Amino acid sequence: MAIVTLLVQLISGAVGGNIAGNVLKRYSLGSVVNSIVGILGGGLAGVLLSALGAGAGSGGIDAASVIGNIVGGGIGGGVLLAVVGAVRNAMGKSA
After folding, report:
1. 47: buried, middle or exposed (CB in 10 Å: 19+, 13-18, 0-12)?
2. Positive/negative CA dihedral, 49, 52, 53, 59
3. Which pTM value belongs to this model?
4. By the 8 A CB rule, do 5 and 55 touch?
5. 74 near 12, Cβ under 8 Å?
6. Which of 16, 46, 58, 67 is the Cys-Cys partner for 78 at CB 3.0 to 4.6 Å?
7. How far apart are CA 7 and CA 54, in angstroms?
8. How far apart are the first and last CA of the chain?
9. Could you state, in order of their start, the residue ranges of all structural domains in the chain?
10. Contact by Cβ (8 Å): 10, 43
Protein backbone atom coordinates (compact mmCIF):
# COMPACT_ATOMS: atom_id res chain seq x y z
CA MET A 1 0.00 0.00 0.00
CA ALA A 2 1.44 3.35 -1.03
CA ILE A 3 1.79 6.09 1.57
CA VAL A 4 -0.37 8.46 -0.50
CA THR A 5 -3.15 5.88 -0.59
CA LEU A 6 -2.94 5.40 3.17
CA LEU A 7 -2.98 9.16 3.83
CA VAL A 8 -6.04 9.62 1.61
CA GLN A 9 -7.85 6.84 3.46
CA LEU A 10 -6.93 8.18 6.90
CA ILE A 11 -7.96 11.74 6.09
CA SER A 12 -11.21 10.64 4.50
CA GLY A 13 -11.83 8.37 7.49
CA ALA A 14 -11.49 11.35 9.84
CA VAL A 15 -13.90 13.35 7.70
CA GLY A 16 -16.30 10.40 7.52
CA GLY A 17 -16.18 9.97 11.29
CA ASN A 18 -17.01 13.63 11.85
CA ILE A 19 -19.81 13.60 9.29
CA ALA A 20 -21.28 10.49 10.92
CA GLY A 21 -20.99 12.17 14.32
CA ASN A 22 -22.90 15.20 13.03
CA VAL A 23 -25.58 13.13 11.34
CA LEU A 24 -25.96 10.55 14.12
CA LYS A 25 -25.88 12.90 17.10
CA ARG A 26 -26.62 10.21 19.68
CA TYR A 27 -23.50 8.30 18.61
CA SER A 28 -21.20 11.32 18.51
CA LEU A 29 -18.19 11.14 20.80
CA GLY A 30 -16.97 14.71 20.35
CA SER A 31 -15.04 16.05 17.38
CA VAL A 32 -11.59 14.91 18.52
CA VAL A 33 -12.68 11.35 19.33
CA ASN A 34 -14.84 11.26 16.18
CA SER A 35 -11.70 12.09 14.19
CA ILE A 36 -9.59 9.46 15.95
CA VAL A 37 -12.20 6.73 15.52
CA GLY A 38 -12.71 7.83 11.91
CA ILE A 39 -8.98 7.62 11.22
CA LEU A 40 -8.92 4.09 12.61
CA GLY A 41 -11.99 3.15 10.56
CA GLY A 42 -10.53 4.64 7.39
CA GLY A 43 -7.29 2.72 7.89
CA LEU A 44 -9.10 -0.53 8.60
CA ALA A 45 -11.34 -0.09 5.58
CA GLY A 46 -8.30 0.59 3.42
CA VAL A 47 -6.57 -2.57 4.60
CA LEU A 48 -9.72 -4.64 4.05
CA LEU A 49 -10.31 -3.19 0.58
CA SER A 50 -6.70 -3.83 -0.39
CA ALA A 51 -6.94 -7.41 0.87
CA LEU A 52 -10.08 -7.94 -1.20
CA GLY A 53 -8.42 -6.42 -4.25
CA ALA A 54 -10.77 -3.46 -4.41
CA GLY A 55 -8.20 -0.87 -3.31
CA ALA A 56 -5.39 0.73 -5.23
CA GLY A 57 -2.88 -1.99 -4.49
CA SER A 58 -0.79 -1.35 -7.60
CA GLY A 59 0.46 1.96 -6.24
CA GLY A 60 -0.84 3.89 -9.22
CA ILE A 61 -2.56 7.16 -8.56
CA ASP A 62 -5.45 7.88 -10.89
CA ALA A 63 -8.81 9.55 -10.38
CA ALA A 64 -10.76 6.32 -9.97
CA SER A 65 -8.47 4.90 -7.28
CA VAL A 66 -8.35 8.18 -5.36
CA ILE A 67 -12.15 8.47 -5.42
CA GLY A 68 -12.44 4.83 -4.37
CA ASN A 69 -10.05 5.42 -1.48
CA ILE A 70 -11.93 8.53 -0.38
CA VAL A 71 -15.27 6.74 -0.44
CA GLY A 72 -13.90 3.62 1.25
CA GLY A 73 -12.11 5.56 3.96
CA GLY A 74 -15.08 7.82 4.61
CA ILE A 75 -17.52 4.94 4.86
CA GLY A 76 -15.11 2.97 7.05
CA GLY A 77 -14.70 5.92 9.41
CA GLY A 78 -18.43 6.52 9.60
CA VAL A 79 -19.28 2.88 10.19
CA LEU A 80 -16.68 2.43 12.92
CA LEU A 81 -17.88 5.61 14.64
CA ALA A 82 -21.47 4.34 14.58
CA VAL A 83 -20.39 0.98 16.03
CA VAL A 84 -18.24 2.53 18.77
CA GLY A 85 -20.97 5.07 19.59
CA ALA A 86 -23.63 2.35 19.79
CA VAL A 87 -21.44 0.23 22.05
CA ARG A 88 -20.71 3.25 24.25
CA ASN A 89 -24.41 4.09 24.51
CA ALA A 90 -25.30 0.46 25.31
CA MET A 91 -22.65 0.29 28.03
CA GLY A 92 -23.79 3.61 29.48
CA LYS A 93 -27.40 2.46 29.77
CA SER A 94 -26.54 -0.79 31.51
CA ALA A 95 -24.36 0.84 34.17
Report:
1. middle
2. positive
3. 0.85
4. yes
5. yes
6. 16
7. 17
8. 42
9. 3-52+69-88
10. yes
